[in-house]
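debug: dumping io for the single-chain case to check the tokenizer round-trip. Nothing else runs in this session.
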Amino acid sequence: MLQTYEANEWDNHFPDSTQKQAISALEEGQILYFPQLDFSLLAEEQQFLSPDYVDTKAKHVSYLSNHGKLWGVRHLTDQQHIQLQSMLERFARSSYRLIQNMLTPYTAHLIMGRTSFRPVEVAHRKTSYRKDDTRLHVDAFPSAPNQGMRILRVFSNINPHGKDRIWRIGESFEKVAEQFIPKINAPKLGTRALLRFLRITKSYRTLYDHYMLRMHHAMKADNRYQQQASQREVRFPSGSTWVVQTDHVSHASMQGQYALEQTFYLPVKAMFREELAPLSVLERMLQMKLS
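debug: decoded output
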């Protein structure tokens, strides 16, 4: 489940043999784990280790590096806004360098997505079941269809009190899909085009996005599945970093406060083994093109 690598610098170089092994592990649904890869905050950034700066309507602080856009915040002065944006920009660039050095063949194809800062304790957050990250799920985004691209994420636990970030890891993607996909109906004619026309979705929701989103919702809604599905607990200590494709790995974040996360999107064509992509798995299962 965890493939462990020794690195304490974000610019650490990895030999070709290690990269090939890491890519193989990642595409098979494993997690790349860097127990000593810490993202250290600057002195002026320590002030943000508080949930008080997160908008009460948001799960976390969000930042888009390519647009210099920061949102999900409150009570920030102009100076603090600049400092927090700078912190997230540093993490975005550090994450990119890690992928560049660890998964070099992917680099030319990567699309940088959102950076997030998560200072709220996961276990105490009150939300709807669909937004409840303590329930096992695979990632799919209601308003931001990824149209089959892989969701590659870099997480770093920056908890200043030495507390672990605790996950549950569930069954393989194939087993999850076998259980839930047969119960999902095809979308009604015209629904996906209407969602795009009304700008409810940021791009067109493909058939792949439809089935992945419905599976995400069905997993979280099924209490029996949450309790009985094969799963194991994984602890990520403060000062550690991990890389995972969250559209593939069934996971739940059970406990933890103060983490950073960087999302990248990767076209299926860039994979070493395209047949392992969720898009390919669902197309085989449903015997139809979903892109």
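debug: round-trip ok. The longest helix spans residues 78-102.
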